[in-house]
Amino acid sequence: MHLCDKSTYSTMSKQRKNRVKIEKKYKNIGRIPNSALNKICNYIDLPSRVQSIRASIGNTIKHNHRHIDELEEQLHQLGITKEGYAEFVAKNFNQIRLGNKPMSLVLSVTLEESNHIAALHLHYELKENFWLVTSVHAIRTKELEKIPLIWEKQKGGR
Q1: How far apart are CA 85 and CA 120, in angstroms?
Q2: CB under 8 Å to 138, separation ≥6 — which residues?
Q3: What is the pLDDT of residues 54-75, one digit of tens each?
Q4: CA 28 to CA 131: how far, in whole Å?
Q5: Strand partners, 120
């Protein structure tokens, strides 16, 4: 006796194929920590506690080539490739700010000694349940400070 009928197996198979397709198209490049997620939920009504940050690396570079090309020399000095830039920010961000669109965030890597800050813009993908990188660029401290701060990494922890 089978617990599932044919249509249930078909639905499960489609879901599995969709997950595999998402895994191929969008690389998992980081996670939002629980402490930050609690703060984000005060500003954005999320249907679930999603932490995964994903990017379509090829599309990210293609659509942000001007910003990335401007940073190429600095990236090279840091030992970061164009392809690794979004992943570097996703793994090292120390601030999360409210995005300018609904269901969006700005992750930033801020350095006290620099006036330029690496930033990732994320949008929550409701259907796939992850944060998608929509743009990458450097932003000046003065401009970043205009964006509402949601969370900041405590010194010595995440």
Answers
A1: 10
A2: 67, 70, 71, 116, 117, 118, 119
A3: 887 666 556 556 666 666 777 6
A4: 10
A5: 107, 136
Alpha-carbon 111 to chain mean position: 19
Which of 67, 49, 35 is CA-nearest to residue 134?
67
Question: In terms of Cα–Cα distance, which of 125, 87, 130, 126 is closest to 107?
Answer: 87
Of 89, 116, 85, 82, the C-alpha closest to 105 is 89
The parent domain of residue 76 ranges over 27-152
* Residue 114, domain member (yes or no): yes
How confident is the prediction for the chain on average, in pLDDT? 78
Q: Is residue 20 part of a domain?
A: no
Q: How many domains does the chain have?
A: 1
81-118, pLDDT tens digit by residue?
Answer: 767 788 888 999 999 999 989 999 999 988 766 666 77
Indicate whether 21 belongs to any domain: no
Residue 157 included in any domain: no
**H or E element: which one contains 65?**
helix 65-78
State the pTM of this model. Answer: 0.74
Question: At 107, which helix (H) or strand (E)?
Answer: strand 104-109
